[in-house]
Structure to design on (540 residues):
């Protein structure tokens, strides 16, 4: 029996004062079956009607037995049950179509649907294996209200071959419950109690064993516990029951984590006619960048990362990101970045029947300092270099350009490293670091033009105990030394190599053919271990 609720219910004033947010819950009851149906019969199979085909079920190994883990609509109507054995299912219907479950493919389809739903709001969160949450707060008016938005979403999904159920309310819990167990699609905040009361206990997202226990004591509907004393319920069933109830009523916050970071700034263009050509896409991208420029200037920021979303008419969404080496606001340069990116992803970008929505976002921005241009029209001598770096990285990838960076080490192979050019300001850092090296040190410490990442062993004949090599064999070739300079002794870094690591004596040598090498001896003659010789670099 469902309790009657009056405007004087203690929940009503709280509900009127709570959230202004509006959450849309999407449930895909037959997601695996829809995935297979789309591949077999096309994306418009729902609108054309299901072909004459046996029920489709999906099986996976559960507790060392093959059991049904997903069904299509016809299988549900035919009496198949989740958890049922495959042998029993075949006995019920010999012609049943049993397919292996593919959770990775189902997950990919769900994530693709999440990308597609970002056409309505950027705040899209995954809900388990077959659902989505959309935070549409402040977005519904763009499509004529919540009912119009919901109708548009469900109609588009229907024509894409995806069966879906949805509901909108002020809490994620209530939307989830109504989408799966209710009949009303849009619930106003003051209607929460009335709509939730007649729903079964499963609508509160409770564990199965708790739902069975509640049913045994006669608590089968949510309305049976809404106004019941809370302390006995908590003692008998634990805090999870009241938490789920309060979340559904909107009395307890339930934060949603968007699947992807939400950009701080974006501009969108919805087209009456889809576009396919690269020039059309780039022209619209520059137009969107021009719409973003005033807001970036108002904030005093420039974009460091731009993301272009292309919504294809068949539901697929392409995300193309382009980073910059310095803050950027110029629309022409932003469009130029995506020209390079489109060239790089040309093989993977299939326009199909065209793109109907384009969205340009700025996920990352930094402070932008406006500089006075000189007579050449260039405000900064590093601007051409930054433009070059941006084009190269957009075409070849973020780690296509590297800079040598000094490290706090005197061991040659550790003294410098290459880091990706992520910021044009790194150029200034490298120049400043190079200028601070004392001139005497730069002259005394001559290094080869090519330094091997790992020293290569050689066979050397040398004067003992401290003399340079007379000859050495490297890569099966014998070299006789004509001139030698050294040694330059470099001690090991005991905190890295250990206290027993040997010292190195480096020699700059030139063979009889004029080739110059950089060799070192590790250890000393007459020591506890025989010294070894290594080739570490070549000068020319």
């Amino acid at each position: 029996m469902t309790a009657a609720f009056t405007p004087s219910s203690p929940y009503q004033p709280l509900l009127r004062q709570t959230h202004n947010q509006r959450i849309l819950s999407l449930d895909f009851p037959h997601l695996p079956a829809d995935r297979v149906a789309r591949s077999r019969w096309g994306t418009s199979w729902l609108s054309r009607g299901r072909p004459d085909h046996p029920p489709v079920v999906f099986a996976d190994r559960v507790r060392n037995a093959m059991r049904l883990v997903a069904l299509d609509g016809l299988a549900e109507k035919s009496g198949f049950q989740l958890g049922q054995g495959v042998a029993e299912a075949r006995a019920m219907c010999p012609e049943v179509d049993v397919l292996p479950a593919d959770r990775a493919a189902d997950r990919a389809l769900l994530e693709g649907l999440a990308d597609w739903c970002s056409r309505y709001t950027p705040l899209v969160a995954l809900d388990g294996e077959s659902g989505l949450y959309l935070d549409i707060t402040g977005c519904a008016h763009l499509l004529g209200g919540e009912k119009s938005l919901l109708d548009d979403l469900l109609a588009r999904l229907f024509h894409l071959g995806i069966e879906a159920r949805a509901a909108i309310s002020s809490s994620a819990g209530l939307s989830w419950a109504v989408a799966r167990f209710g009949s009303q699609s849009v619930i106003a905040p003051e209607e929460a109690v009335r709509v939730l009361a007649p729903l079964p206990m499963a609508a509160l997202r409770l564990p199965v064993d708790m739902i069975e226990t509640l049913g045994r004591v006669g608590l089968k509907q949510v309305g049976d516990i809404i106004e019941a004393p809370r302390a006995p319920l908590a003692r008998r069933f634990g805090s999870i029951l009241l938490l789920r109830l309060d979340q559904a009523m909107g009395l307890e916050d339930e934060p949603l984590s968007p699947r992807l970071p939400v950009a701080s700034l974006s501009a969108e263009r919805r087209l009456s006619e889809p576009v396919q050509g690269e020039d059309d896409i780039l022209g619209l991208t520059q137009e969107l960048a021009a719409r973003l420029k005033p807001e970036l200037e108002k904030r005093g920021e420039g974009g460091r990362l731009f993301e272009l979303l292309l919504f294809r008419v068949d539901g697929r969404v392409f995300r193309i990101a382009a980073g910059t080496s310095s803050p950027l606001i110029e629309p022409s340069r932003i469009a130029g970045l995506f020209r390079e990116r489109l060239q790089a992803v040309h093989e993977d970008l299939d326009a199909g029947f065209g793109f109907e929505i384009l969205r340009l976002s700025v996920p990352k921005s930094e402070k932008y300092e406006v500089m006075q241009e000189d007579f050449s029209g260039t405000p900064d001598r590093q601007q051409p270099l930054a433009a070059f770096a941006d084009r190269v990285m957009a075409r070849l990838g973020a780690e296509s350009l590297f800079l040598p960076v000094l490290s706090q080490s005197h061991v040659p192979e550790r003294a410098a490293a290459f880091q990706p050019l992520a910021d044009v300001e790194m150029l200034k850092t490298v120049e400043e670091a190079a200028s601070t090296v004392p001139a005497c040190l730069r002259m005394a410490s001559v290094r080869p033009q090519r330094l091997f990442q790992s020293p290569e062993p050689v066979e050397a004949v040398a004067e003992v105990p401290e003399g340079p090599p007379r000859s050495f064999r490297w890569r099966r070739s014998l070299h006789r030394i004509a001139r030698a300079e050294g040694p330059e002794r470099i001690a090991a870094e005991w905190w890295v190599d250990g206290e027993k690591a040997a010292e190195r004596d480096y020699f700059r040598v030139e063979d009889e053919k004029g080739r110059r090498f950089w060799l070192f001896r590790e250890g000393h003659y007459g020591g506890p271990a025989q010294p070894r010789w290594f080739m570490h670099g070549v000068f020319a």
About this structure: The longest strand covers residues 477-490. The first helix runs from residue 11 to 17.
